[in-house]
Specification:
This protein has 225 residues and is mainly α. It contains 7 helices and no strands. Helix 2 packs antiparallel against helix 6, helix 2 runs parallel beside helix 7 and helix 4 packs antiparallel against helix 5.
Length: 225
């Protein structure tokens, strides 16, 4: 009977375990970035969902017949609502101004704009990490790729042979590093673009609500004249 020998190539896990410390360190960085990316995605998605629900509830109250004092009290019951926070800032400013002099619309506009910017800045937190992962992930993976190929050439120089058994391990390390880099960068880029779009929608919502507050003040002033 003729004996045949089967050469098995290492799998992905074996390639990682047999990789050089530099490549292993690169993979650990990319895996850590990927884990952080998915954690941020789930956190921000849940946060935006809560904000949308809370904004809808407070907007319905704003459109009701509640007085400004009653709306201010209701704002405390909607801690996740960005428009409720903007309303509180506007109300507190109006209350302070009315004690000393008449309410100046220009000053109120600045208060509304600053409050809106503060809320958007809070929503932008952690998005920088997504942008960084999306832009640097492929390059970090490329570093591992280059290092793995360098290792393959180094083995060729040591052994003087350029057969598959010598070259394959290094190439395998390189491909794993590239794949992990892309796996970390692609979801981060998609998520970043999605959340940036959601931020634009939230900014529009806050700007429209600020306009509603200014209209309410104009009506109040008109009724007193």
């Amino acid at each position: 009977m003729e004996n045949t020998s089967i050469t098995t190539t290492p799998g992905i896990l074996e390639s990682i375990l047999l990789a050089s410390p530099i490549v292993q360190g690169t993979l650990l960085i990319l895996i850590g970035m990927s884990i952080m990316t998915w954690a941020i995605i789930f956190f921000k998605k849940a946060e935006i969902k809560k904000i949308k629900m809370a904004n809808k509830e407070f907007d319905d109250l704003f459109d009701s017949n509640l007085s400004m004092n009653e709306l201010y009290d209701e704002a405390d019951d909607h801690p996740n609502s960005t428009i409720a926070k903007v309303y509180r800032s506007a109300y507190e400013h109006i209350k302070d101004q009315s004690l000393s002099s008449k309410v100046e619309v220009a000053t109120l506009e600045r208060v509304l704009r600053k409050s809106t910017e503060n809320e958007i800045e809070l929503l932008e937190s952690k998005l920088t990490f997504l942008a960084t992962t999306g832009s640097t992930g492929p390059f970090i993976g490329l570093f591992g790729t280059v290092w793995g190929i360098m290792g393959s050439f180094h083995k060729i120089g040591q052994t003087g042979m350029a057969n598959l058994a010598v070259v394959a391990p290094g190439i395998s390390e390189a491909l794993v590093a590239t794949a992990v880099g892309l796996a970390a960068a692609i979801p981060a880029t998609i998520a970043y673009n999605y959340f940036v779009n959601q931020l634009r929608l939230q900014e529009n919502t806050l700007n429209h609500f600020s306009g509603d507050i200014l209209n309410l003040i104009d009506k109040f002033k008109g009724s007193n004249n």
